[in-house]
Write a structure and sequence with these properties.
It is a single chain. The protein has about 240 residues and is α/β, with parallel strands linked by helices. It has 7 helices and 8 strands; from the N terminus they run αβββαβαβααβαββα. The chain has helices at about 5-10, 45-60, 75-85, 105-120, 130-150, 170-180, 205-235; strands at about 15-20, 30-35, 40, 65-70, 90, 160-165, 185, 200. The strands form 2 sheets. The chain has a 5-stranded parallel beta sheet, with helices on both faces. The chain has a 3-stranded antiparallel beta sheet with strand order 1-3-2. Helix 6 (about 170-180) links the parallel strand 6 and strand 7 (about 185). Helix 2 runs parallel beside helix 7.
Length: about 240
């Protein structure tokens, strides 16, 4: 089990919430105090809930469950890509397209289009086309990569969704809820804990805060995958 230290949460700025007048009253159980007009998140609760989330994803990973990380805001995007790749999760870090979960069959055709274009590029077929047509396909390829690189290997709906910013990713959350997918989410003081399965109260704006929480989740998923592979080897 990964370790979560209060001193590390504090150093990462996980405790800083939004200005008090922007809060959601449903987050009151997770707020420690208000200072200079800003809500301060109770890091003891954050620590407990982050550990619970880590245990949950590790247990799920041990049984072969798949994960989708969603974080499209500028400060979250690089962290999402890095940590998802580290633990073998899928990710969306550019923009969530409506229907990516609820209309997955249709989106699979767009992902296949991305794979086809990448194959054509690798084979040099695009370079051999007339200049105008080659430019058009190259532009299409770049656009598809922005949207679908992180889900290129996703062959089915993910089992568990990890969200960075509830406000920004509300469409993804609604789709996950419609499909009864477990949702783990960092929740700042302006969020609604009723919309997620496992809340992690914390600063969802600061890079270091996002990085700390996502790293812990990714590490837990990786640990679970090691056990999953070891168990499969024993069965063989």
């Amino acid at each position: 089990m990964v370790k979560v230290e209060l001193s590390e949460l504090l150093a990462a700025g996980v405790h800083f919430g939004h200005k008090a007048h922007h809060w959601n009253p449903k987050m009151s159980p997770y707020i420690y105090t208000e200072k200079d007009g800003v809500h301060i998140i109770d890091l003891i609760q954050t620590s407990v809930l982050l550990k619970q989330a880590c245990n949950f994803v590790q247990t799920a990973s041990q049984t072969g469950k798949s994960f989708l990380f969603v974080g499209t805001k500028r400060q979250a995007a690089p962290v999402i890509a890095k940590e998802a790749q580290r633990c073998g999760a899928h990710y969306v870090n550019y923009r969530w397209l409506g229907g990516m979960l609820t209309n997955w069959i249709t989106f699979r055709t767009r992902i296949q289009r991305l794979k086809d274009l990448e194959n054509q590029q690798q084979q040099g077929e695009i370079d051999n086309l007339p200049k105008k047509e080659a430019a058009k396909l190259t532009k299409e390829l770049e656009r598809l990569r922005k949207y679908f690189t992180g889900v290129k290997t996703m062959t089915k709906e993910p089992d568990i969704i990890v969200i960075i910013d509830q406000k920004i990713e509300i469409i993804a959350i609604k789709e996950a809820l419609a499909l009864n997918k477990p949702i783990i989410s960092i929740l700042d003081t302006n969020c609604n804990p009723d919309l997620v399965t496992l809340p992690i109260p914390g600063n969802d704006d600061a890079v270091q805060s996002i990085k700390y929480i996502i790293e812990k989740l990714a590490e837990s998923i990786s640990n679970g995958q090691i056990n999953y592979r070891n168990n499969k080897t024993k069965i063989k």
